[in-house]
């Protein structure tokens, strides 16, 4: 039997699954590629992966080609700590400013555009760049959007003179909803032809998150010496990030898609089509 080609986000937001893969054998029999979200987005759209977590907006842009894996997503209800706008000006004062977007993200680019437009009436000029963490906001820009571990670090290490905004909380203020940042998608052809491999991936990912969360302390200790965070910071972050995908999460995701569509960021609002697996 071949192996499923599975993507894995190498951010702390997936630490419980990383721990299960690396320390507890949950990756056995799988061909795993660990990378930042935009690399995985690109890999699965170009058929280099069978199943992968992707920026949630990527499903909307390619829904004819993919199904969503049930029961798993990356979300937070309000503050997320790792989707952060760092700005030289208060958010209310942003107008046609130049804003830099991290090249690691796709969903939060859209999320920021929605929030700045709908809540603040701002229409900035956006530029995607690789961010130098020693100089988060370039000279010629007003603000920078960070995600993942970079954002978490910036959130815990404020620099004087800059303003910090948690865009998960800005979304919550705008809509009253949680925000689904990533979903696991499956190539439809793969789902059709390899139901057994898909079932294995589903079991490993869902049980891997549950196992790693149960062993949160060991999971944090595995990375503590290699990351610029305290145990307490990581412990708190792993309570903020959620990995479920209930009906309520799906409704929140659809609201995000509707707003993204209104702003011409996607060309249609997709149905949320879940893959069939034994749960
Ligand atoms: C909350 C996060 O979730 C994510 C945000 C993504 C995006 O903005 O495209 C993609 C995958 C997730 O890693 C984060 O990375 O901080």
TrEMBL record:
GO biological process terms on file: menaquinone biosynthetic process
Keyword hit for Flavoprotein: no
GO molecular function, a single term: hydro-lyase activity
Record's keyword terms, sorted: Lyase, Menaquinone biosynthesis
UniProt-listed CDD domains: PBP2_Sco4506
Catalysed conversion reaction: chorismate = 3-[(1-carboxyvinyl)-oxy]benzoate + H2O
Pathway(s) it belongs to: Quinol/quinone metabolism; menaquinone biosynthesis
SUPFAM superfamilies for the chain: Periplasmic binding protein-like II
Gene3D superfamilies given in the database record: Periplasmic binding protein-like II
InterPro entries: Menaquinone_biosynth (IPR003773), MqnA (IPR030868)
Annotated EC: 4.2.1.151
Record function comment: Catalyzes the dehydration of chorismate into 3-[(1-carboxyvinyl)oxy]benzoate, a step in the biosynthesis of menaquinone (MK, vitamin K2).
Family statement drawn from the similarity comment of this UniProt entry: Belongs to the MqnA/MqnD family. MqnA subfamily.
Classification via PANTHER family: CHORISMATE DEHYDRATASE (PTHR37690)
HAMAP family with a match to the protein in the record: MqnA (MF_00995)
Name used for this protein in its record: Chorismate dehydratase
């Amino acid at each position: 039997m071949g192996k499923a080609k599975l993507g894995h986000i190498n951010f702390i937001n997936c630490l419980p699954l990383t721990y299960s893969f690396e320390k507890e054998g949950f990756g056995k029999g799988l061909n795993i590629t660990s990378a930042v979200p935009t690399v995985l987005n690109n890999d699965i759209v170009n058929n280099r992966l069978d199943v992968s977590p992707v920026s949630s907006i990527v499903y909307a842009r390619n829904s004819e080609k993919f199904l969503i894996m049930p029961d798993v997503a990356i979300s937070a209800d309000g503050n997320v700590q790792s989707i952060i706008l760092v700005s030289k000006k208060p958010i209310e004062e942003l107008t046609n400013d130049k804003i830099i977007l991290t090249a690691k993200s796709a969903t939060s680019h859209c999320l920021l555009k929605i929030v700045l437009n709908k809540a603040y009436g701002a229409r900035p000029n956006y530029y995607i760049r690789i961010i130098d963490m020693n100089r988060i906001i370039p000279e010629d820009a007003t603000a920078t959007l960070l995600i993942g571990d970079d954002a978490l670090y910036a959130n815990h290490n404020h620099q004087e003179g800059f303003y910090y905004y948690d865009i998960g909380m800005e979304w919550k203020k705008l809509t009253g909803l949680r925000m689904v940042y990533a979903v696991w998608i499956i190539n439809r052809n793969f789902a059709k032809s390899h139901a057994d491999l898909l079932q294995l991936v589903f079991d490993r990912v869902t049980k891997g998150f549950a196992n790693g969360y149960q062993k949160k302390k060991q999971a944090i200790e595995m990375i503590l010496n290699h990351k610029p965070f305290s145990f307490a910071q990581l412990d708190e972050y792993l309570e903020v990030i959620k990995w479920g995908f209930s009906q309520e999460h799906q409704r929140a995701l659809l609201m995000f898609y509707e707003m993204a569509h209104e702003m011409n960021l996607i060309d249609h609002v997709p149905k949320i089509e879940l893959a069939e697996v034994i749960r």
